């Protein structure tokens, strides 16, 4: 019963770890299977339920995973298998079968979330489960003798040689195993203005950047673009950049070089520093566009990493007639109404820079207010005419609208603002709550100039991090009508611990997950003579590790002698040194009398040692 409770606890933990990754119906089926295994006692009824759950799970998997979600489907099936096998934990062979199924489930969980914490936690769960099985069986580890070790080593050497020479990529990073697990995207590129909110306050890390630590750039003020939004038709923005595709962007001044790692919740867009950027290399294929954004050709579960060079700031570039036309396009039946409300007293200067300055002044004079809970506006016009409260998406949409009314080509840019420097691995962490929207206005002599309308409304949103600003706007957490100050949950120690764990995950990903063939060969060659074949080095290394494990098991499994028995053996050896050996027919008391008669000077010693032996083993 104790093993069943431990197994149920491990399966329940796996359910909690996967609750965000697999469908709720699969979770419900797993929990129901576990619960019924404790209730249903009849053998026939148990068999009926197990068959029913198995058939139901296959139907559910077929229903939920019509597209190529290979990893999620595999995880769901492994989780269901563990709950069904839980019904059969009666014999010893069932224990080891459950161990194999749980190990498979851990591998699947690791594929979904390949982090140091998940790997360590999964390893600890499996080691604990295996140890408990061995404890139940009273397994004698000394049974692993040299003969059995030889039977284990010989096929291992042959297999390692075959794998190394036949499949040279088999040791390559685990991440590559999911490269072909493509997801059929059901996303729509059109973003309704009404669906631009609510404001994302998730603290999950969206992506991480390396190489900016030495640039002395203020990470809290860095803008990261992901997409440029062009069309405003019936209050809908659309990312219609497919006709602006440019395979080989040209750079003039290269001042920055940095690497980006995007996490598993990525979309098809690739964040880059605002300004002029060019991707040097990428782990996944992508398209580049002349508007300065990049997009994956196919969405994949594989990790996305890429390197960039470029300059940070405004996009100093020539603009095509198509881009200017798109930047002025505006279909709105209320355009004249907006123009009268905002530009009735405008000078309408022929110089675009002067018009932009005047537009900024007009926008600031409207007295908009930043809010994380604004009312719902049906259209951009409604916000401009009657709205007051909003956040970055509202302000960027409104400013782009006004710029086009005022004959200034403008486009809305979505991405991120800010980041947090991790001193443990010198990386910049950008979180989902850093999501932001701003505007680019085209000026004849300066190209596309960045304007952030949010900075005109709430300057502290730019100078502070998103989390600091959100805490300032909402200093309290409401639980059951009680307001709790957020400062109670903020701790420098916890934040440093979080950054340290994040750096561990980075090192784990770099040194373990991405331990590819080149790194493997470099390590092996640094440790061995250059004339020896790398394949043989691999095979011999495996054999050496097996031998080390056997030695550990051998010495650990040796029979331990009772200390009282050791003391008695020392007494017998000392008597032998005086020519007195205990005969087989002789009792210990008879031997004591004979020793005392021959060694009268050692009577006290003889009596003490024999007395200790008798007290230890006969009382």
TrEMBL record:
Pfam families: TgpA_N, Transglut_core. Signal peptide: none annotated. The chain crosses the membrane at residues 5-20, 26-42, 63-87, 99-128, 149-167, 534-557. InterPro entries: Bact_TGase-like, Papain-like_cys_pep_sf, TgpA_N, Transglutaminase-like. Residues 384-455 form the Transglutaminase-like domain. Keywords: Membrane, Transmembrane, Transmembrane helix. The keyword Secreted does not apply. This is DUF3488 and transglutaminase-like domain-containing protein. It comes from Bacteriovorax antarcticus. The lineage of its organism: Bacteria, Pseudomonadati, Bdellovibrionota, Bacteriovoracia, Bacteriovoracales.
